[in-house]
Each structure stands twice: as structure tokens, then as C-alpha cells.
Amino acid sequence: HAREQGQNTYQYFSKSLNAVAFQKLAMENSLRRALDRDELLLFYQAKVDMHRQRVVGGEALIRWRHPDLALVAPSQFIPIAEESGLIVPISNWVLETVCLQIREWQDRGISPAMVISANVSANQLHQPGFVGHVRNALTQAGIAPECLKLELTESMLLDHVDEALVTLRELRALGVKTSIDDFGTGYSSLSYLKKLPISELKIDRCFVRDLPDNEDDVAITTAILALARALSLDVIAEGVENQAQAEFLMAGGCHIAQGFLYHKPAPADEFFDFVAHFNQATLSNSGR
Ligand code: C2E
Ligand code: MG
Ligand code: MG
Ligand code: MG
Predict the structure, then answer these.
(1) Which residue is closest in CA terms to ligand 1's atom 23?
(2) Which of the ends of the chain has fewer CB neighbours closer than 10 A, N or C?
(3) What torsion, rounded to 10 degrees, do the Cα atoms 34, 20, 83, 264 define?
(4) CA separation for the pair 155, 231 (Å, rounded)
(5) Rounded distance, CA 249 to CA 244, Å?
(6) What angle do CA 152, 275, 229 make, to 5 degrees?
(7) How far away, in angstroms, is 82 Cα from ligand 4 center?
(8) ipTM over 0.95 threshold
């Protein structure tokens, strides 16, 4: 009986493994064609200055309009893209598209002070021509480097510190801003942090979620805010979903937030309308 059961378990297991492997291969093949078929698109989520009640920027978040599936989230295909090398052409497409989008928004009247960020993958950062690609995307779109921010992760920077340092210096010389995304979830050595020329720390959502009730998260966010202040880095909190979190962060000196409390990622035109409304509303409220 036990053996029978064991066999069943084994069969079930191997079947599901095959299914997973098959699904991955199928995904990889259709992802390969997604770029040519124009199935990738960028959503944008607002970054809000909670103090001044103004949208000060946004983040580009990739989506895949798969012909047979609902809109596919990046967590479902970025890992496949990374493994297969498809991340390189996809990342280049993201950079070019974000820069062209900034150009279009500026033509429609959005302030050049609005900074839009793009997520960078580990493979992309360590491509030999990476900074050149960024420069080309900026030139092609005709936008100032200061309008673009690149979100990197701790592990990306610390796994190859020397290379990362060179790239970060080049980006800084170019005028492009950089942020450490999901800050606190990696294992940043504080001494490296001091050496790395970055502009911003982005507090991960997992520390924000249970603010202000969870004592550990209070301690962690307070420490990150103190660190940012000591190193003169900008700071933003991600995943702000309610007023209590917003108030705690503001009291601690973190004025910029990204989260569902203010805005959910949306297509480019909706983002534009949101910004126009939100910033117009605060302008007319404060204009006296
Ligand atoms: P991330 O860069 O940390 O992006 C923030 C994620 O948190 C986004 O998920 C966003 O929709 C979500 N989020 C924002 N505010 C809230 C909130 O208040 N509550 C909750 N529950 N979630 C919130 P998304 O769009 O699914 O992206 C997931 C991750 O995929 C991103 O994490 C980023 O690491 C990666 N990603 C997205 N776009 C790109 C891209 O163009 N290139 C690369 N390499 N990675 C990307
Ligand atoms: Mg990000
Ligand atoms: Mg993040
Ligand atoms: Mg995150």
C-alpha cells in the first residue's frame, strides 16, 4: 500500500515537473516573439510628494499582453527572460520606450522636473554596452539625463562591486539618477553603500506593510531613514497603501511615496491624466 502511494506521489510529482518544464519552454518561445509582435507594454505608477501633495515622478513597470492569457505580470516572465538571455533585448526596449514616453509627456506639457524610473536587471547592468545604451536612448528621445532614474537592487551592485562602481560612476557623469530598489531586503554592507555613487534608497514594501504597528518594521524604517539622511541620499517608500503608513513615514522625514494609496500602475495615457489632475488640484488648492 505504501509503495503504491509512493508510486502515485512519484508519478504525480514527475508529471507536474514536466508540466512546469513544458510551460516554461512554451513561455520562453512566445516571449521570444513578444517583442516583434508588440505584446510588451509599460505601465506607470506615480511617485507622490506626500507633503506637498504633488506627483514628482513615476516608475515604468513592464507588462506582457500575451495573446492567450490575461495581462502577464513581470514576476511571471522576467525570470524566464533572465535565464534565456531575452532580458537584453527586452531591457533595451524598456529603456528606449521610457525615454520616448518622457519625450512625449514633456511635449504635452509635463514638467521636465518629473523623473521617471526604469527597473534594471542584473544581466542588463553588467552588459558591456549598458551605459552607451542608456546614452543612446536619451539622445534618440532628446531628453535630459536628469529626467531618467534607474532602479537597481542591492545584490546586483554587491555581487560585482568593482564593475558596478565603474558603471555607477559613468551613469553619474552622464547625469542619470540611480536608486537602490527593495532596499533592506538584500545584505548591503554599509561601507559599500558609502562608496557607491547612488542618488536614492527605496524602502521595500515588506517594511512598509505593517507600519506603524509592527515594532520591528518601525525600527527598520527609522534606521533606513536615518541612514539616508546621514549619507545625504533621497529616500522613497514603496507599497504605501493607507494613511497611517503615510503619516508615520512623513513624521520620520520620508516625504516621497509610491503605492496604491495614491495610484495603481496604469497605461501611459492614464498616468498622464492622473498627473495632470492631481497636480492641477494641488496647484489650485494652494494658489491664493
Ligand atoms: P519593483 O520594482 O519593486 O516594483 C514595485 C512593485 O510593487 C510593482 O509590481 C508594483 O505594482 C507593486 N506595488 C506598488 N505599490 C504597491 C502597493 O501599494 N501595494 C502592493 N501590494 N503592491 C504595490 P509589479 O509591477 O508586478 O512589478 C514587480 C517587479 O517586477 C518589480 O518590482 C521589478 O522588480 C520587476 N519589473 C517590473 N518592470 C520591470 C522591467 O521593465 N524590467 C525589469 N528588469 N524588471 C521589472
Ligand atoms: Mg522598481
Ligand atoms: Mg521596489
Ligand atoms: Mg519591491
Answers:
(1) 239
(2) C
(3) 60
(4) 20
(5) 9
(6) 45
(7) 17
(8) yes
